[in-house]
Design goal:
The chain contains 6 helices and 14 strands. It has about 300 residues and is an alpha/beta fold. The protein has a 6-stranded mixed beta sheet with strand order 5-4-3-2-1-14. A 5-stranded mixed beta sheet has the order 6-7-9-12-13. A 3-stranded antiparallel beta sheet has the order 8-11-10. Strand 1 (about 10-15), helix 1 and strand 2 (about 45) form a beta-alpha-beta unit. Helix 1 (about 25-40) packs parallel to helix 3 (about 70-85).
Length: about 300
């Protein structure tokens, strides 16, 4: 059993990963191989990108390639997770168990005891992602505390997602991503790193990100180069800025970035140390969709 002090220490691995085109079984075999590699090196949590199992198939193929969670692919990885005593998070298309017409861009969460469930992307990037919208932010309990999950657009453009988790005690946020970019990727890479660091600073969160890498032809987008750059960022005790603990990975190659984190670390800078305790949720009700109040206007 882990002692309480040990629960702050966790080794996280993020995999720069390229799906095997339309070969879901081939992708699953390679996910298993990378999982084994990371687990053998001591990873406790192993993170794969958004849509790692299938990439973004044509809409007509969605019913055939989507799976329930639990399902055949997650059960296979569950066997490996049990052997490695590790948690594995994989981006895939989830078919609703009760209504097979409802398909989600999801993250399957698998632990040593089996399949724990899924997070469903709450902000699909329309019109390119013709998937159902997730409606909850589930917590997944681990020996290192609860972890929260977001998928790509959720993280970069909707700060409410990370804040929701941080306000509920999450210290490690897992971001599965598939960022399409131009030939140089410089603009997208700058946005990507800026937003990850901002989410980390404003919530005092560790953020682990795994990205799709390589080139692929996508029906909805044409020829696409994915950003890669899997990275792990988080707070550090003596600074207000965000620290890069591992990565970024390469922009074009598959690889694993991995590090041990002490999740008890918080910034001691007075600028950011007490952000969460300085919140005033009672005055944020306008964010729920009501018109902004005119109070205080001339």
């Amino acid at each position: 059993l882990l002692m309480p002090s040990d629960k702050n220490l966790v080794t996280v691995a993020c995999v720069n990963f390229k799906p095997a085109g339309g070969d879901k079984e081939g992708s699953l075999e390679r996910i298993a191989d990378f999982t084994d590699q990371a687990g053998q090196k001591g990873a406790n949590i192993i993170l794969f990108p958004e849509l790692a199992l299938t990439s973004m198939p044509p809409d007509a193929l969605l019913p055939r390639v989507a799976e329930t969670i639990p399902g055949p692919s997650t059960e296979k990885i569950a066997q490996l997770a049990a052997q490695l005593n590790a948690y594995v998070i994989i981006g895939m298309l989830e078919r609703d168990q009760k209504d097979s017409t409802r398909i989600y861009n999801a993250a399957a969460v698998i632990g040593p005891s089996g399949v724990l469930g899924s997070y469903r992307k709450t902000h699909p990037f329309h019109p390119f992602e013709n998937y159902e919208r997730g409606k909850t932010f589930p917590l997944f309990e681990t020996p290192y505390g609860p972890i929260g999950i977001g998928i790509c657009y959720d993280t970069y453009c909707f700060p409410e997602v990370c804040r929701n988790y941080a306000a509920r005690g999450v210290r490690l946020y897992c971001n599965l991503t598939a960022v399409p970019c131009g030939l140089q990727c410089s603009d997208e890479a700058d946005l990507y790193m800026t937003m990850l660091k901002a989410r980390s600073i404003e919530n005092q969160l560790f953020i682990a990100t795994a990205g799709l890498v390589g080139k692929e032809r996508i029906e909805q987008l044409g020829e696409v180069t994915f950003l890669g750059l899997s990275v792990i960022v988080g707070p550090q005790a003596e600074r207000s800025s965000c620290h890069v603990y591992a990565g970024p990975a390469d922009e074009v190659k598959e690889e694993i970035v991995m590090t041990e984190l002490d999740l008890s670390v918080k910034s001691s800078s007075p600028l950011v140390a007490n952000i969460l305790s300085h919140r005033h949720p009672e005055i944020y009700v306008d964010f729920a969709g009501a018109p902004a109040s005119d109070e205080g206007k001339d």
